[in-house]
């Protein structure tokens, strides 16, 4: 299977990705965080995209991330989050999305593919300031619980309670293929973030995954602009045409892929497929 996922509810998703996918009868999964300017300003267009069969996934309200990132403000620094605050945010986002698409079950994508919230302790903070972030030392600190004052915790248990599945990251262009499906955790689905890939890169990555009998989940941000992690518009057009010509039947939403493998009660899946077929 192949799933095309799009993060952060960008204008370029409505202006470029959705029309291209619709033109080829392909479905995408759009992970929207509610505070995105292009989400609040274009609710009717997101509703139409859902009516045409595209999946709207939960990506939180404020897209919390590491406080060290330049675009992160104090209010959405994941360093300050607690499990209860994250749960409230996820539940609220689910209710808002249900008001848009009418669906009661939903999939989730961890912002920045990170399932951990809270602040680092004294030891790891010092290691990072010394430039040792990408050495073995932080892992050793975690393994032996040496990070004094840390409040970091995984919020994956809350995600398991609220969603039928969740997309993580972990793969790159250089990955030989997605891992065997029998090793997958449906609340930490591996995906590869597309940034500056050429058409041949996309094709070869998909072919490796299909050849291994696995599920290829691609993570797009910018489509012809809109984000530093960008896919060239011409490349995306050519890739969508190639998918439609070579393997259209393998392209599924994340919810549909989860249903095919684990058969959870995802009632939205058949409705989405019927919608896109009637629209085509």
Provide tags for this entry:
two-stranded antiparallel sheet, 2 domains, 11 strands, 41% helix, 280 residues, TIM Barrel, globular, alpha/beta
What is the overall silhouette?
globular
Integer tally of domains: 2
CATH hierarchy: architecture of the largest domain = Alpha-Beta Barrel
* CA(first)-CA(last) distance: 20 Å
Strand order of the largest sheet: 3-2-1-9-8-7-4
The residue fraction in helices comes out at: 40-55%
Q: What is the N-to-C succession of helices and strands?
A: EHEHHEHEEHHEHEEHEEEHHH
CATH class division of the largest domain: Alpha Beta
Strand content range: 15-25%
The number of helical segments is 11
**β-strand number:** 11
What's the CATH superfamily of the largest domain, by name? Glycoside hydrolase/deacetylase
Low-confidence stretches: 266-272
Structure summarized in a few sentences:
This protein is of the alpha/beta class and 280 residues long. The chain contains eleven helices and eleven strands. It is globular and about 55 Å long.
Written description of the protein model:
By secondary structure, this protein is an alpha/beta fold. The protein folds into two domains: 2-115 and 158-279, Alpha-Beta Barrel (TIM Barrel), CATH 3.20.20; 116-154, no CATH class. It is built from eleven helices and eleven strands. It has helices spanning 11-24, 37-40, 43-51, 83-101, 122-129, 137-143, 156-162, 199-211, 233-246, 254-262, 268-279, and strands spanning 2-7, 29-32, 55-58, 107-109, 116-117, 153-154, 165-171, 189-193, 216-220, 222-223, 230-231. Strands 3-2-1-9-8-7-4 form a seven-stranded parallel β-sheet, with helices on both faces. β1 (2-7), α1 (11-24) and β2 form a beta-alpha-beta unit. α1 (11-24) packs parallel to α9. The longest helix has 19 residues, at 83-101. The chain is globular, with a radius of gyration of 19 Å. Residues 266-272 have low confidence and may be disordered.
């Amino acid at each position: 299977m192949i799933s095309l996922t799009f993060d952060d509810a960008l204008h370029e998703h409505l202006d470029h990705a959705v029309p291209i996918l619709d033109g080829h009868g392909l479905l995408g999964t759009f992970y929207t965080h509610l505070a995105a300017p292009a989400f609040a300003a274009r609710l009717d267009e997101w509703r139409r995209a859902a009516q045409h069969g595209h999946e709207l996934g939960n990506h939180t309200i404020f897209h919390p991330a590491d406080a060290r990132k330049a675009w992160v403000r104090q209010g959405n620094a994941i360093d300050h989050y607690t499990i209860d605050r994250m749960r409230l945010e996820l539940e609220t986002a689910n209710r808002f999305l249900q008001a848009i698409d009418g669906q009661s079950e939903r999939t989730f994508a961890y912002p920045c593919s990170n399932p951990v919230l809270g602040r680092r302790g004294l030891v790891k903070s010092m290691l990072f300031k010394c430039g040792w972030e990408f050495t073995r030392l932080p892992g050793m600190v975690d393994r032996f619980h040496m990070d004094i004052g840390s409040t970091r915790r995984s919020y994956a248990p809350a995600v398991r309670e609220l969603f039928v599945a969740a997309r993580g990251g972990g793969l790159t262009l250089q990955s030989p293929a997605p891992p065997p499906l029998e090793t997958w955790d449906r609340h930490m689905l591996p995906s590869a973030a597309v940034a500056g890939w050429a058409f041949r890169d996309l094709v070869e990555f998909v072919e490796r995954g299909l050849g291994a009998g696995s599920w290829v989940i691609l993570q797009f941000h910018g489509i012809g602009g809109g984000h530093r992690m960008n896919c060239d518009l011409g490349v995306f057009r050519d890739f969508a045409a190639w998918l439609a010509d070579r393997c259209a039947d393998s392209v599924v939403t994340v919810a549909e892929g989860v249903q095919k493998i684990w058969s959870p009660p995802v009632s939205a899946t058949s409705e989405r497929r019927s919608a896109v077929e009637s629209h085509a």
